[in-house]
Write a structure and sequence with these properties.
Elements (H helix, E strand, L loop, with lengths): L8 H8 L24 E7 L1 H6 L1 E12 L15 E2 L8 E8 L2 E8 L8 E2 L11 E12 L8 E4 L15 E7 L3 H7 L3 E2 L4 E2 L1
Parallel strand pairs: 1-9
Antiparallel strand pairs: 2-7, 3-6, 4-5, 8-9, 10-11
Length: 199
């Protein structure tokens, strides 16, 4: 069985990893235009002791990345077409070489010019090519009874938008319960002397 023509280093790497689901973190043609999931968003919510004990419905305001309506999340200026990336030649990766005592070591890395897509385009004027814009949104949140400081509530798909069709992240609401002054006084140890009692 011949080794074939591997003058293109990408062909060699793809041949070695064929049948293993692509090249994974090392790149490969299968990684082009891959979707990137959005990051999770975090929000700190302060509750009174009563709200934490009995539960409450709160309306919170968050700022997150949402899909750009001008370019529909593509990042490209409407009416333009993408072109082959001149840095990687449309491969989506670049090969770096380093000479070591054991020989020449080659590493495949994602192309920084096109982000691994193999294409470049005129950026959208609204989102500057990111495909997402930062917007503020109000969300109604039901806080269950019995939460405590440090509790985390998860609201699915209310985090930052993904890129190239990636799933949005989640919103995590971190609870902080204010100390109730009446309860605090009731639980404060009291010491007494023959003259008076004091805390």
């Amino acid at each position: 069985m011949g080794m074939g023509d591997f003058s293109n280093p990408f062909d060699l790497f793809e041949s070695l990893f064929e049948g293993m689901g692509g090249m994974g973190g090392m790149g490969g043609r299968a990684s082009r235009n891959r979707a990137v999931d959005g990051q999770d968003e975090y929000y700190n919510l302060v509750l009174t002791f009563k709200e934490a004990v009995f539960g409450v419905e709160k309306e919170i305001e968050i700022t997150r990345l949402e899909s750009c309506g001008t370019c529909d999340g593509s990042g490209a200026k409407p009416g333009t077409k993408p072109s082959k990336c001149s840095t990687c030649g449309g491969q989506g990766q670049v090969v770096t070489s380093a000479r070591t005592p054991l020989g020449v070591f080659q590493q495949v890395m994602t192309c920084s010019s096109c982000g691994g897509s193999g294409e470049t385009f005129s950026p959208c004027n609204t989102c500057s090519g990111d495909g997402r814009v930062r917007r503020t949104k109000r969300i109604s949140l039901k806080v269950p009874a019995g939460v405590d400081s440090g509790s985390r509530l998860r609201v699915r798909s209310e985090g930052n938008a993904g890129r190239r069709g990636g799933s949005p992240g989640d919103l995590f609401v971190i609870i902080e319960v204010r100390t109730d002054p009446v309860l605090k006084n009731a639980m404060t140890p009291t010491s007494c002397t023959r003259a008076r009692c004091h805390t």
